[in-house]
Amino acid sequence: MKRRSAFAALILFTVNLFAAETYAPPPESAGGWRACQNDEEVRSLAGMDPQRLNLIRDQQLQVFQGPWSIVIIRHGYLVAEWFGVPTMPHTTFDVWSCTKSATGVAFGLLLDDSLHHKLLHDVQISLDTPAYDFVPEGRPLTDPEKQKIDLRHLLTMTSGIPGESRGVMGLAVAPRSGEYELALGKEPNRFGISAAKLTGEPGTVWDYSDAAFAHLSLFFAHAAGREIDDYMKERVFDPIGMEDVSWDRQGGSGHIGPHTNAHSGLHLSARDFARLGYLLAHDGRWRDMQIVPRSWIQTATQSSQKLNPSYGYTFWVNTDAVLWPTVPRDAFAFRGYGANRCYIVPSLDLVVVRVGDAPPNWGEESLLPAVMAAVLNPPSSKRD
Questions:
Q1: For residue range 51-64, what is the model confidence (pLDDT) as tens digits?
Q2: How do residues 104-158 score in pLDDT, each as one tens digit?
Q3: Does residue 37 contact residue 78 with C-beta atoms inside 8 Å?
Q4: Is 360 exposed, middle or buried (0-12, 13-18, 19+ CB in 10 A)?
Q5: What are the residue ranges of helices labelled H in the chain?
Q6: Whole-angstrom distance between the N-terminal and C-terminal Cα of the chain?
Q7: Is the torsion defined by CA of 296, 300, 301, 302 positive or negative?
Q8: Among 96, 301, 326, 347, which is least packed by CB within 10 angstroms?
Q9: Is 216 in a helix, a strand, or coil?
Q10: Tally of CB atoms within 10 A around 128
Q11: DSSP 119
Q12: What's 156-186 look like in SS3?
């Protein structure tokens, strides 16, 4: 009898382990995330300290005004969800530069499609593909050195195209001007600053540049024969049940475009943003489907160069433990203006989302370490 009971316990453990490894939430319209219902479930199912989480909640609600939402997911459980008035669970926010990392996911899929000869007309691309081979709108080049820019440089912010350090903040167009014309250096921005000349040879400088990133909209449209937003809806958003999502396009009206805005304009609810983070935390796998190539996630979420080791391929990373010293080194994040974040810590099976319109300074330096402190008996990082 004891042997049979032990065998039954082993079978139950195996079934539960398999279920934990393969769990993925149904869409919100079909029930959404499974949730911890009480403090004991927070401890036993999510492995987190409810008292510490309550302290975080109280601080956020008391100190930070305005519409915002925070969602914490651990082991596939919605552990905590907090709102600033008047936000509700399905409220969406423009997550600003978090959009860049979603664009990076699209390019990971595009590169994989090319590798497996799935692109229209068997288009072939790689990280070493010259950018302007797929950005014909940029010719004639405004700087001959632009010929040296390849896809890798655009995805890692090392193209040399002027960005924030040179006063090219976003794509602040002048009246009757176009965003892509500005990005390509054909027109100056509203402050008279131009992106026409590179700040240095591609690969030798790092600058956070929305003008450079806008090139990816054009590159993708020409390489894939379709827009990033449509592609991501079909390949990622719909398969993982993201329902509260939209993505802006820019340009047109007599200017280049419209094309999906590669650097900003993705609108998400916190719960659906957490789905995207959860997908990446699980190596791009959703139930029995490999949605995003695991190899791309591994590449994109580690340091891509030495100029700014905290930047991977469109993701902010913790490879050198500089961004978040108390957090495992396998952590990475979507980061956007206006307090928009999605932190992913694969070694802890942890996703923390914070979206909102305000305030710009909301205590990022304290939120993630506080959530980490609420994790009970954390294992060591995958990349220590």
A1: 999 999 998 888 88
A2: 999 999 999 999 999 999 999 999 999 999 999 999 999 999 999 999 999 999 9
A3: no
A4: exposed
A5: 2-22, 39-44, 50-63, 98-115, 151-155, 179-183, 210-224, 228-232, 270-281, 294-300, 364-373
A6: 45
A7: positive
A8: 326
A9: helix
A10: 9
A11: S
A12: CCCCCCCCHHHCCCCCCECCCCCHHHHHCCC
CA distance 136 to 123: 15
Identify the helix (H) or strand (E) that includes residue 333. strand 332-336
Sketch out the chain's domains with CATH numbers.
98-260 (3.40.710.10)
Structure tokens at 10: 């082993």
CA distance 264 to 232: 15
Quote the tokens at residue 57.
């909640």
Which amino acid, one-letter code, is at 275?
R
Q: What gap in Å lies between CA 71 and CA 87, rounded to an integer? A: 12
Name the nearest CA neighbour of 358 among 59, 57, 90, 93. 93
Strands 259-260 and 77-84, sheet pairing: unpaired
Structure pTM? Answer: 0.92
CA distances for 20 relative to 8, 23, 39, angstroms: 18, 5, 20
Q: Looking at residue 189, what DSSP letter applies? A: B
Cα angle, residue 334 at apex, residues 107 and 106 outer, rounded to 5°: 15
Strand partners, 285: 290
pLDDT bin (cut points 50, 70, 90) of residue 361 is low
Neighbours of 52 (CB within 10 A): 17
| Cα→Cα distances 287→110, 284, 293, Å | 22, 10, 14
Region of 147 please: left (phi>0), alpha (psi -120 to 50) or beta.
alpha
- Burial zone of 363 (CB within 10 Å; 0-12 exposed, 13-18 middle, 19+ buried): middle
Contact yes or no for 87/356 (Cβ under 8 A): yes
- Residues sharing a CB contact under 8 Å with residue 276, sequence separation 6 or more, in sequence order: 102, 105, 236, 240, 242, 268, 342
By three-state DSSP, how is residue 68 classified?
strand
Strand partners, 336: 340
The predicted-structure confidence for 308-319, as pLDDT tens digits, reads as follows 999 999 999 999
The identity of residue 62, as a single letter, is: Q
